[in-house]
């Protein structure tokens, strides 16, 4: 049994609250570690370390800060396999998927190496008689991030890399379900040259979260998780005068037009719907074929693909399609929603409820499920399942299909599969969803664009990574300067007289 720690001021520190959470191996159901849950006093100590270290880090010029990130990228590549294995062991992802988790975070770090360019201000010469005006982007101070279990490497780096590049200190509160990789990332940042205290990792639950929300020194908070918690954090954080960005739940639709390449669409749905056991905020969980003939062809293509999915632990090799879900509670929630779909009248075309993996009977594995004839009033349509469940909602027209995505309360991602450029262009322009794929099933933007949804998938004005990150983690200061004239002429030696 491993005893995990916090990471404070450059050292692993045991918890003092006396409270711990179990960290499971999702494949076996066994408790493999204990993680300490911080008290408000422990959080305050982390803030004190960060507050002391931040001014010197902010005074370090952006190019030197960028060099630390350059070295960090080298270390991430060096330890990629080690990080992926630790991530898979606690989360359950396959090794290739875990490595992808690290890689997508690494790409944001690479973007942040361009901080010297992103942090340049503006200058206006002669804004008035003898007046110059210029703006500066300055660090906020101590910032914080609360990150989810489903991307324990990527999302922490999406937050702390731009925060640090801008000269802030950062306090990371990762998910208590898979905390080892965030601790490893903090070690690597200091190996790369980050001064002690600039990046802290504090493990915890709601007590630590509330302490972050209420601490007067913390200037900004980033969050990714469920919509109810996002609303709570956004409301409480903003009421305390903090800058807050929160990213919540999703119910991502993929529209399949009659002219789509049906094999391409089916393959895309398999990867987007079942990859990572569906535990992605950008997973496609709703397929919307337009017309019954399109739906019939799609289901015919999907069924053998779903039935052929290989489910197993990451140790079974890279040909495993997906692993277990993260906890026993998550498994029961998924199966409960599947049963609600059956009870409410949907057609369960592929039934994974009896899935059982020999030798891993106590693991948190969920078999793949495929529903047809789902309607918008069903729980499996309205709620985020966060599991390997794909729902098919038949639309009789393009307008009906678009309306389904537009009327849903979530607006994280969506996609359309078609050969018709006019339909694709109309869809991209009209849809009220933040990230759109055209023949791309998971439209996650690259690091130099921004990531963020609309509607109840986001709370706040700015997106993650890309240019928005540098706006979120800095304040703009504008200076208007005028200097007295005549000084350059030198001293006057004659007695001044009145003219």
Structure in words:
By secondary structure, the chain is an alpha/beta fold. The protein has 2 domains: 2-248 and 466-481, Aldehyde Dehydrogenase, Chain A, domain 1 (3-Layer(aba) Sandwich); 252-438, Aldehyde Dehydrogenase, Chain A, domain 2 (3-Layer(aba) Sandwich), CATH 3.40.309. Helix content is 38%, strand content 22%. The protein has 16 helices and 23 strands. The strands form 6 sheets. A 7-stranded mixed beta sheet has the order 15-16-17-14-13-19-20, sandwiched between helices. Helix 13 (379-382) links the parallel strand 16 (369-372) and strand 17. Helix 10 crosses helix 11. The chain is globular, with a radius of gyration of 26 Å. The mean pLDDT is 96.
- Amino- and carboxy-terminal Cα gap: 92 Å
Spatial order of strands in the largest sheet: 15-16-17-14-13-19-20
Number-wise, the strands total 23
Oligomer: single chain
Brief sketch in words of this structure:
This protein has 499 residues and is an alpha/beta fold.
Outline the fold blueprint:
Blueprint: E1 2-3, E2 6-8, E3 11-13, E4 20-25, E5 30-36, H1 40-59, H2 62-78, H3 80-91, H4 95-112, H5 115-118, E6 123-128, E7 131-139, E8 142-146, H6 154-165, E9 169-173, H7 180-191, E10 199-201, H8 206-214, E11 218-224, H9 227-239, E12 243-247, E13 252-256, H10 262-274, E14 284-289, H11 292-307, H12 328-343, E15 347-350, E16 369-372, H13 379-382, E17 389-392, H14 398-407, E18 410-411, E19 413-417, H15 421-430, E20 435-438, E21 454-455, E22 458-459, H16 467-472, E23 474-482
Parallel strand pairs: 1-5, 8-9, 8-11, 9-10, 11-12, 13-14, 13-19, 14-17, 16-17, 19-20
Antiparallel strand pairs: 2-3, 4-5, 6-7, 7-23, 12-22, 15-16, 18-21
Helix pairs in contact: 1-8, 2-4, 2-7, 3-4, 4-6, 10-11
